[in-house]
Amino acid sequence: MRIAIQGEPGSFSHEAALKMEPEATIVPCSLSSEVFRRVVEGHVDAAVIPIENSLAGPVVEHYDLLLAHDVTIEREALLRIRHNLIAMPGSSIEEIRRVSSHPVALAQCRHFLEQHQHMEVFPFYDTAGSVKQLMEQRETHAAGIASQIAATYYGAAVLAADIEDNPQNFTRFFFVRPTAKVQPDPKANKVSLAFSVANRPGTLVQALQVFSAHGTNLTKIESRPVPGQPWHYVFYVDYQITAPGDTRVPMEELLHHCSMVKELGSYRHSEQPA
Predict the structure, then answer these.
(1) What is the number of domains present in the chain?
(2) Which of 94, 134, 180, 263 could be a cystine partner for 142, CB 3.0 to 4.6 Å?
(3) Which of 150, 181, 212 is the last residue of a domain?
(4) Active-site residue 235, yes or no?
């Protein structure tokens, strides 16, 4: 199976993709839009995309892309995010003068960086990309913050492991495939969908009451602006269903209150890893 990810090899998306499909061939893409294009055009079999981090929040671009393309969420997985200080083999922490990584990763390692103020911090486009660059340039006084898989992939060394401030750091990933190739999962117990309502009083409340009336547990709600329609929004929700396979009742009733409803996927809830 060929799986597209956004980012460099060795990224957390790479790690998540191998967790979901250990024998997969990973196809790195520069942009998230390229990931979705490759899926819908059949250049890859699937994509693995981050949708939210327990500390940094949602990846809002991916909500928009899920709605815009004919794809379906087939699975979800939670990945424990472990940040590591990574450098050239033979380097020591005392020698490191500059540290680069994605701004979110740098923010999640603030305490470690404050304790090592001889290291100057530089934002970079990608966690794994920071390791790739220092290995290509043979920078002995530089380090990146990235996953263990990045160190292994590029032949670098981990100088300090698990340097994130908060151990309750998880990213939720979706396994996405073309809608026509997704088979219904009879054990699905979670649904993601998008809907929009008319801009008049009470319509959002009426839509949300559908979930309550059917005893579903609404686990997430996210709003995104509709392009070209100021102050109009699409709402993205996740909910758990009472009986596996029973996903249609809320959808049918939502149509009475919504101008648009699109089911994004019906899948099994992923347990949080240790």
Answers:
(1) 3
(2) 134
(3) 181
(4) no
Q: Which of 36, 112, 173, 174 is catalytic?
A: 173
In a domain, 109, yes or no: yes
Residuewise pLDDT in 10s, the chain (274 residues): 999 999 999 999 999 999 999 999 999 999 999 999 999 999 999 999 999 999 999 999 999 999 999 999 999 999 999 999 999 999 999 999 999 999 999 999 999 999 999 999 999 999 999 999 999 999 999 999 999 999 999 999 999 999 999 999 999 999 999 999 999 888 898 999 999 998 778 889 999 999 888 878 899 999 999 888 888 899 999 998 876 656 666 778 888 889 899 999 999 999 877 5
60 and 103 assigned to the same domain: no
The residue annotated as part of the active site, out of 72, 171, 216, 247, is: 171
Q: Say yes or no: 149 and 197 in one domain.
A: no
Torsion (CA) 248, 250, 253, 254 in degrees, nearest 10 = -110
User: pTM of this prediction?
Assistant: 0.92
User: What torsion do the CA atoms of 136, 117, 11, 138 make, to the nearest 10 degrees?
Assistant: 10
Q: Is-contact 109 164, C-beta < 8 A?
A: yes
Q: Is 171 annotated as catalytic?
A: yes
